[in-house]
Specification:
The complex is a heterodimer of chains A (311) and B (357). Chain A has 311 residues and is an all-alpha fold. Chain A has a single domain, classed as MetI-like fold (Orthogonal Bundle), CATH 1.10.3720. Chain A is built from ten helices and no strands. Chain A has helices at residues 15-46, 63-99, 102-117, 120-145, 163-187, 191-199, 204-233, 236-241, 261-268, 275-309. Chain A is flat and about 70 Å long. Helices cover 72% and strands 0% of the residues of chain B. Chain B is flat and about 70 Å long. Chain B has two domains: 26-108, no CATH class; 118-351, MetI-like fold, CATH 1.10.3720.10. Chain B is mainly alpha-helical and 357 residues long. Classes of the chains: A mainly alpha (311), B mainly alpha (357). The interface between A and B is large, with 108 and 111 residues.
């Protein structure tokens, strides 16, 4: 397995070959070094923050108390975004792979790719300038009628710059990724399984439930996790949309919202200096570790199922 | 969701060979009825457009399902329900895209003038300035990133496909590149900042820092797309070249890479389109300035996305003017990104090798 490097059988190692092979291997190693470098340099620059005091940590006594609310906000926004995006993405992916006629399906696929190409700062502008104001009446209605649910406790924000609005924008940004992966997987479902289900008299939905979804389950999970990774790390949309005050609350529609790690860095990095900046870098390291773990497990799930799912 | 084939859904003994079915245009009829009912009810209650659309959608989904339940079997009703939900989810997903594009165009277009594109913000005290400095900054920073990311990415792809077949190092690189795709962009910016603060002293903001951050984000995209393209090169071509006594490295450079060139260039263009809109890493690593800076290696450098973010979040004294400029710059940015996407497609078409040998 590991010794078949000269499969095509070049007769002898020439100097040019040696140089070129090592050049390409070197490029690969640079990437590994760069990835390690990200961790190393963030640790080096983040470490001094352990000795930082309340002055540099926005009034928090130590680094842990500083990062914890941010981690909470990051996870909250990302999870809500996923709850919105994954069902939608599954619907869109199914419409492309199984429902729409071929020609329409490719147009839909192109439009979804377009959604992925829009820069995040433009999403942010749209969120704050268009979506936020449109959401205000909904928030007011929720605060009036459903305030017994902790999520909608209110009082409703009158700018719409809430964590819920931010999550909707995040959901839009995650949607194309989840759609792209799930639609690939749905399209790979063995044709015979589908036809067998239909031949037994299954309706289209029964065919999808019995043949397509079980086949694509690991793919759906890993697509959702990759989307989670994206939502966790997304900065600009949240930084623009959210009016953050760094509290820990499950209230989704008020004007006091938890901040996220990435948004907090973007909002305060330029003005901070000294240890405060080190603390921001330390929080960035936390974000890096979280997203690394999420992406790592997502890829590991894909890799585990790869041999069985290759078709 | 049940996974295994459960017992076949029990159905009553067939009364006739043919199950009653809804007419073929049933969904269209349901849409028409739902829209009419929704509009009638909504208008009589004085609602706006959005609640009416939501109401009509709900009426459609429920109405069609109930109708089918009455006329057809419960199984068919479930099928129709899911079909409706799939189409509704598609519409919900596409509404924001349309809304986003129209908002950016209507709000951004009035800002775009000759001076807007050709001057900078230097010395602008009142009234709209220009985004020339931001466009130049974006182009230079992205160029810097491309110059670094493309050779590394391409060589790595060659290694993965041609040399590393099955080796453990190649497996590790491939896996970590997948993981690297998910690095948050702001972390890449922090890395570039941390790197240069340690080398050049704290508080270093310059264009090249932004390029390094973008390189981190760009490499995985370049590697993955190039790798896919190199894999597509038929091994006949390689073997024919070897048979002529051409060494492997020359085969790669003269046969394999040129054959895959169309796809590789398309992939690189898409990678550029992806990173050119990045904001967060440039806020961190490249800073902000009002004047034109053409030196990547010294002084802060504004890029287009950072300009959009900055003029919206720190509008200064004339809020309306700054917000207007932010929308204008966002429109320019979208045009650039979409242009690159279209260019990638066109290049892919033009450069693809002529088949039929």
């Amino acid at each position: 397995m590991s010794t078949t490097t000269t499969k095509s059988g070049s007769p002898k190692r020439r100097l040019g070959d040696l140089v070129f092979a090592n050049l390409t291997r070197g490029a690969g190693l640079i990437i590994l070094v760069a990835l390690a470098g990200v961790a190393v340099f963030l640790t080096l620059e983040g470490a001094p923050a352990f000795s930082a005091g309340p002055n540099d940590l926005g009034g928090k006594s130590n680094l842990l108390a500083y990062v914890a609310p941010l981690v909470f906000g990051t996870l909250l926004a990302a999870v809500i975004a996923l709850l919105i995006a994954v069902p939608l993405a599954l619907g869109v992916a199914l419409s492309i792979s199984h429902y729409a006629p071929k020609r329409i399906a490719s147009v839909i696929g192109y439009l979804v790719d377009l959604l992925a190409a829009v820069p995040s700062v433009v999403y942010g502008l749209w969120g704050i300038g268009f979506l936020g104001p449109k959401m205000v009446p909904i928030y007011e209605w929720l605060a009036e009628h459903l305030s017994w649910i902790p999520f909608f406790a209110g009082p409703a924000s009158n700018t719409g710059r809430t964590i819920f609005t931010a999550s909707i924008v995040l959901a839009l940004m995650v949607l194309p990724i989840v759609t792209a992966i799930t639609r690939e997987i749905f399209a790979q479902t063995p044709r015979l399984n589908e036809e067998a289900a239909l031949a037994l008299g299954a309706t289209r939905w029964e065919m999808i439930r019995m043949a397509v979804l079980p086949y694509g389950r690991s793919g759906i999970v890993s697509a959702a996790m990759l989307g989670l990774g994206r939502a966790l790390g997304e900065t600009m949309a949240v930084a623009l949309v959210l009016s953050a005050s760094g509290v820990v609350t499950f209230n989704l529609i008020s004007s006091t919202n938890p901040s996220t790690i990435a948004a907090n860095i973007a909002l305060t990095f330029a003005e901070s200096n000294g240890l405060a900046r080190n603390a921001l870098i330390a929080s960035g390291l936390v974000l890096f570790v979280i997203t690394f773990v999420v992406n790592f497990s997502a890829r590991a799930i894909v890799a585990r199922y790869e041999p069985g799912s290759k078709k | 969701m049940t996974t295994e084939l459960s017992a076949p859904p029990t159905s009553k003994p067939l009364r006739s060979i043919k199950q009653p079915r809804l007419p073929k245009q049933a969904p269209l009829i349901a849409v028409a009825v739902a829209v009419a009912a929704g509009a009638l009810l909504g208008l009589s209650l004085g609602w706006g457009l959005a609640p009416i659309v939501v109401l009509a959608g709900l009426l459609y989904v429920i109405g069609l399902t109930v109708w089918s339940r009455i006329v057809e079997t419960p199984r068919a009703a479930t099928d129709r329900l899911i079909t409706s939900l799939v189409w509704v989810s598609l519409i919900i997903a596409l509404i924001p895209l349309v809304s986003l594009l129209t908002t950016v165009i209507t709000k951004g277009a009035p800002a775009i003038t000759g001076t807007f594109l050709s001057t900078s913000m230097r010395g602008v005290i009142s009234g709209p300035g220009g985004i020339n400095h931001a466009i130049i900054g974006t182009l230079l920073i992205t160029l810097g990133a491309t110059v670094m990311a493309v050779p590394i990415g391409l060589l790595t792809a060659v290694y993965l496909v041609e040399y590393g077949q099955g080796s453990r190092l190649a497996g590790a690189i491939r896996f970590l590149i997948d993981v690297m795709t998910g690095i948050p962009s702001i972390v890449a910016g922090l890395f570039a900042y941390a790197l240069f603060s340690l080398i050049l002293g704290p508080g270093t903001f310059f264009g090249f820092g932004g390029s390094v951050a973008l390189t981190i984000l760009m490499i995985p995209i370049v590697v993955r797309s190039s790798e896919e393209m190199l894999k597509l090169v038929p091994s006949d071509l390689r073997e024919a070249s070897y048979a002529l006594g051409v060494p492997k490295w020359r085969t790669i450079l003269k046969v394999v890479v040129p054959t895959a060139m169309a796809g590789i260039i398309t992939g690189i263009t898409l990678a550029i389109a992806r990173v050119i809109g990045e904001t967060a890493p440039l806020v961190i690593a490249a800073g902000v300035t009002d004047s034109i800076n053409t030196n990547l290696f010294s002084g802060q450098m504004t890029s287009l996305p950072v300009f959009v973010y900055n003029s919206y979040s720190n509008p200064g004294s004339e809020v309306d003017v700054a917000v207007q400029m932010a929308w204008g710059a966002a429109l320019v940015l979208i045009v650039i990104v979409m242009g690159l996407n279209i260019l990638a497609r066109v290049l892919g078409k033009i450069l693809s090798p002529k088949t039929g040998h």
